[in-house]
Amino acid sequence: xxxxxxxxxxxxxxxxxxxxxxxxxxxxxxxxxxxxxxxxxxxxxxxxxxxxxxxxxxxxxxxxxxxxx
Length: 69
What we know:
The protein is an alpha+beta fold. The protein has one domain. Helices cover 39% and strands 16% of the residues. The protein contains 2 helices and 2 strands. The chain has a two-stranded antiparallel ribbon. Helix 1 (2-11) crosses helix 2. The longest helix is centred in the middle third of the chain and has 17 residues, at 35-51. The N and C termini lie far apart (31 Å).
């Protein structure tokens, strides 16, 4: 998972927060980002992940908004 952690660190902005909370799960908080932009950012993450020689497995995601909290 250290490869995925490194890819996440390169793709997301300095103000975004991420943490690994399971053996294969990361929580990523994108500040000031709507659902559509979140999908675009995940697409960028997938593209970068697929460029890695040592990458294996499929990535999936779920988006939830914090609006109203």
